[in-house]
TrEMBL record, chains A, B, C, D:
One of its GO terms (biological process) is ectoine biosynthetic process. GO terms for molecular function: diaminobutyrate-2-oxoglutarate transaminase activity; diaminobutyrate-pyruvate transaminase activity; pyridoxal phosphate binding. This is Diaminobutyrate--2-oxoglutarate transaminase. It is an enzyme of class 2 (transferase). Its cofactor is pyridoxal 5'-phosphate. Transmembrane segments: none annotated. Belongs to the class-III pyridoxal-phosphate-dependent aminotransferase family. PROSITE patterns: AA_TRANSFER_CLASS_3 (PS00600). Its EC number is 2.6.1.76. It comes from Rhodovibrio salinarum. Pathway: Amine and polyamine biosynthesis; ectoine biosynthesis; L-ectoine from L-aspartate 4-semialdehyde: step 1/3. InterPro entries: Aminotrans_3, Aminotrans_3_PPA_site, Dat, Ectoine_EctB, PyrdxlP-dep_Trfase, PyrdxlP-dep_Trfase_major, PyrdxlP-dep_Trfase_small.
Length: 431, 431, 431, 431
């Protein structure tokens, strides 16, 4: 760790929370240079849905590199690029009756978001984009502009205009699916009021489940209504499925159960399968209006990632077996989290999320952070999220087996117990 | 190519100019699916300074992946990350008496630029960034804001504020090193005039050689004076060495001969050695003021790229042999380009650039594009640049041998001859 | 009217709705060149609270001009300026225990708003200003930025950033004073959520009664809570009392009953008494932080207006008699409007506003416009407001006597009857 | 003065430089409350081209007010408004073969500028406006956005985007009319370079003589070429003649000798004749595209100002006598200023301006301010301008007689002598 501290910028973050040097990794475990192993409930912030160093993909990647197949190709045509395009259409889009053009916008989540925002503004000729409270879309200025977190926004050092934030489903703990408050009533009222200051937006950008924002899952009815409002008002709907997509919620896209029909879909993180940088933007054919090169970037042709991505689709998405397992284990996770919460009735908390993207919001200052620290001490890697880091969240690899899942949850339970114990004085006050 | 046309977005560009499917690649050659080989004078837009699939790096990457070493690690500490940090300091920074903290800002050029802009604004508390005519810094909104190209800027679909463009060295063909016009006189006059509208900038961002902007190379005296002006006015100097760095001009950084001392340096493209996405931002220690996680991103830990990057440093930069070869071959390129230009005295033209980043500006509409088309027909891959695509440019791998270089230049010469022939009617008018 | 049509820009508006040429005016009547007289329920859009050509002020103005006293003085000290400053302090501020510095920001409403926005941003070092749905603050870009009306906003031709709109009291017809919905719950939730996208605002700008926005009157409890929220979050509170101030609601400031304590207060329109351009910005001493000349303008010294303004204060505000009359007549107006509304039970409507700033919202397309047309035909000048021009509003001079008031209201009633008659087909559908 | 200090905001400026209370005024003299008289070489910052309290206008204004003619009329048709429209067309526009629609945009200079900027953006659908170094156009955010002065710009407290500043004629002391440097070469190069960062501007806004910016007068050839560039590139040309118009330079419009044909012309200050707030925007008929009310404002119908404005046109502009006198006296001013400058050869200085808008730039720190202080002590009111307040400027009423002019210039000469004396130590260093 000396080298990191000496040479790396102060901006580094995870190496502070997990202050060891990692060396090896396999499926849901990590090993540090001292030989300690850790269960990974973080999965590269959702970039490792298929676990670390999956054997099937690894074999394909090694074979590809070994054979001197082209590695870096900008956006030139390559065999690996073609294979991915074909597989994605055949395995993902066609069975879902989805028709989209595929854009390679640069290999990161923020880049696919930037490309979708640009295109939505271009095809509408309008400027304002509607985003939601607690949204997180990326760190480059376009994506940061639609990100709610104030700490991140201030990092821009300049104003981030042409965005209007509206309340996400579940704002202030009130949920549309419980009939408590439909935040879309507010959005629709603003759209219908010619003096609301909102104007006619170009686009709405939404995460079906907000990861960084605190594992907030919108209801399917809310997503469906949002889609209908967008259609009624000729607003482009962008779904940012960078973290929640690629199976994390138990379906390939996180919005499938809502039956919606977005104009643009942003995918990154696990799309590359093996953790190598890759991103795509799905564009409805009628909006595929960029001029050649209007949005470009050097690393649009990371062929080893295409190879792994294609292998991931072939291995896991030809049928529903894999996704079904995720949904079933997801229910198990919910059950366990609710039990953990119930064990500490004096801690104001709620269980949030869907599938393999769940967490417990712990409304005691510093408690969620303490849980992750205690977990790390016990060999479990997990993180917090939410504007006040108030959610202890789980993003395990989808390839985790039942044994690993239970082991991880057991550790999490112990960590929560220990953290609650250490915060006893505060909790007294809260309860 | 059918698959590409059918499934990929209209934004694709290079697959239009080079309409074949590439499969294999080695050093400076590419092979398509029909077995045709091409000499590569484009080198992944400067991301492949060490050629395709370099054997030394390949061995290291394969060994790393084979051994189930960690692939994707966010910004956690890993062995591969540490090795890169150590090697970069030892091999690059220390011998040049440079002291910088290293930031991993996300694995693309636009991302390192965004991080430097944010940090310059943060440490100064100011907003305006000065950029130069013909600058190109990236496609996400922060980097696009300091990019001059109007076609790209319009893609933003919104205003890109807080930037002032000033003339780059050589504007309108007048060069400071020939005593013709020092564009920095203008910049300094604006800074010294409290009513110029410029205000007190946070930063200047500059490419020592502008690649996309038309292979414009600033003189060393101009760069030195720019650095002095920045220091005198407490303005942070950001050097974007994404394309011109990593040896392309014959030194590791493209500004070494100027003896300047930037506050931030942006590197990407060839820093990863093997064409895998990677970027770093070098930050003077006194400005290393990001809070942890203030700028982040998923793919800050692309470990196979770290492995290749380290191998590249070890292989090519332990001594000056490699760089010296680049400088010598660079002079040969200049000589050949000047001869080509001289062959067509009725074509208004000039030879531009430095080292392995050179080109001929051809001031006849469509002529440069015709050159690249003719070159491709003859088995040479090269591209145009400049605001009107008026420069036929060369970015060969630095690992190219003399034979390959001559073969490529011979083809280029034939391509130019053919293109001039085909544009004879226009050229008559121009001359 | 030929001259107007031939020479004046298409931007003219009121000369379209009232297509006669006005010549003479006295108190609440206007006379056109054909000798027709009109009752004025518009009062120069609230700039003529003391009626047209008030005799006391007229005498003072004539005497001032006759005596070659200085007319135009920029912001130099003059006798007339001093007299106004003294009178305003003595008659308005001191009796209300208010301590404010007085700024002359240029002689229009938009100018006082711009000055307050600038100063709020300066003293906080922050940028975002919170404004409300249906707000109207002016047409220059700073004031337009905090104006909700989309038709007006689009006129800017550029983005109007650094503003967040939140719902005004009574949004969607739900009122806080009836316990239906407190829109400030929403505002407070956004402030307390570090990822709401709102950040820490510099200021809130609010009209206690929204005139152009549709005669929406906030409850006193809502205003009080707004003030408290601002204080709790260190946000500057700007009250725009340009239209509702100077007695229009029955107290000099429209917010007096709320017991609030704004940091800045914007006054214009009737502050000049006689309809001559004038504006002031009241600034709490601790925020009086402009440098000399930091906001300036040529017409900050319109001395005839100062003379009339002083006379108005002397004549009408030495005791409560005048204001009491406004409050009493205001109740009469409410009563009459409610009766009118009740006469047409099949027209969805509501009576809005306070004092001499009231109206009927008529939720039938085009009906309110028809009312004003019918009123004009019958010799009554009144206007619509609201985002869809859906409110037939009254802004009579406060100096109107009971007879004039009743006569005007009688005409309005007839006009409403006639308009409802003409819209019978639509109303059938609505009811 | 106690009252001013006690009650008025710290933003006040001229009452600091001229710390007396003014009471009476006639033509070119002011009288304070102690009976001291002053020669006025400031003329309300150019709003009193016809002097203080002109008898002909005064009679008309008194008669108008006395007769209870309508004072405040928003933008309704009135007799006074019609008379002005007719007179302006007949006396000003038609004899010059100019065809413009007249807009009343609110009664201040900043308001006419805002209206022209809006309209230029609307009719082009573009955003960027080109302004010039040292430009001054007003204090509201739209006009401030095209103002160069950094102290004023910072007052906005937010970014002022969508503007590009280019060098005005005479930047760095080099003048196009002396063949030294044509700054429009730079502008044209930026327009013709698709990567200059400038894009396609909506408009250029220019003052033919920059008042606040330092009494910089563009050459007629430069203005003519600017007009041609705008036409060639389909850019709207806005002339801000707020200070230099209404005869100040010896013709009604300051650009008449250039033979240009602006799309929009902004007039305020002296257009109202008597110093009462008024402004108009002249709009070429083909660009008269505002929707009714798209830009509005309360004080668009200041009828006493219309009456005085009409009287001013009738009195002074029916023939060339008045203007000719201005031009002749202007030459006398130039002669005297040059003599004054020549008296102090060790003071780096230059005489600037045209007609009754001239000054001496004194390149010694604080010297110009000292001149105005010494002048005030001797009974002459004059001001400085320029980014560093380095120009001692004269803006006398155009109605000044030869005696008054000479008396004023004599005092100025004495003041300069005294100021130079007091700065002897600095001047030694400078020379």
């Amino acid at each position: 760790m000396d080298i990191i501290e000496k040479y790396e910028s102060a901006v580094r973050s995870y190496s502070r929370g997990f202050p060891v040097v990692f060396e090896k990794a396999k499926n849901y475990t990590l090993t540090d240079t001292d030989g300690n192993t850790y269960i990974d409930f973080f999965a590269g912030a959702g970039a490792l849905n298929y676990g670390h160093n999956d054997d099937a993909m690894k074999a394909k990647v090694l074979e590809y590199i070994q054979g001197d197949n082209i590695t870096h190709s900008l956006d030139m045509a390559t065999v690996a690029r073609q294979n991915f395009l074909k597989a994605f259409n055949e395995i993902i889009l066609q069975p879902r009756n989805m028709e989209y053009k595929i854009m390679f916008p640069g290999p990161t989540g923020t880049n696919t978001v930037e490309s979708a925002l640009k295109l939505a503004r271009k095809v509408t000729g309008r400027r304002t984009v509607v985003s939601f409270t607690n949204a997180f879309h990326g760190m480059t200025l376009g994506a940061l502009g639609v990100t709610g977190n104030q700490f991140k926004r201030k990092g821009a050092g300049k104003s981030l205009g042409d965005v209007v934030f509206v309340p996400y489903d579940g704002l202030m703990g009130l949920k549309s699916d419980k009939g408590e408050l439909d935040t879309l009533d507010y959005f629709e009222a603003m759209l219908n009021n010619g003096a609301s200051g909102m104007g006619h937006p170009a686009a709405v950008i939404v995460e079906p489940v907000q990861g960084e924002g605190g594992i907030n899952a919108a209801s399917m009815a809310w997503l469906k209504r949002l889609d209908q409002i967008c259609k009624a008002h000729d607003i482009r709907l962008i779904v940012d499925d960078v973290q929640a997509g690629c199976g994390r919620t138990g379906t390939f896209f996180s919005f499938e159960a809502a039956g919606i029909d977005p104009d643009f879909i942003c995918l990154s993180k696990s799309i590359g399968g093996y953790g190598m940088p890759m991103a795509i933007t799905l564009i409805k054919p009628e909006y595929d209006k960029f001029a050649p090169g209007e949005h470009n970037g050097t690393f649009r042709g990371n062929n080893p990632a295409f190879v792994a991505a294609t292998a991931a689709l072939e291995t896991y998405w030809r049928d529903d077996t894999f996704a079904k397992g995720v949904r079933e284990k997801g229910e198990f996770i919910t059950k366990r989290l609710k039990e953990m919460a119930a064990k500490h009735p004096n801690v104001p908390s709620e269980v949030r999320g869907r599938g393999f993207m769940q967490g417990i919001a712990l409304h005691v200052d510093g408690l969620a952070d303490a849980v992750t620290e205690e977990a790390f001490k016990r060999g479990l890697i997990m993180e917090t999220s939410g504007p006040a880091d108030e959610v202890a969240k789980l993003l395990p690899p989808l390839t985790l087996d039942q044994q690993g899942l239970e082991k991880g949850l057991d550790i999490m339970e112990q960590a929560l117990d220990a953290a609650v114990q250490a915060h006893a004085d505060k909790i007294g006050k809260v309860a």
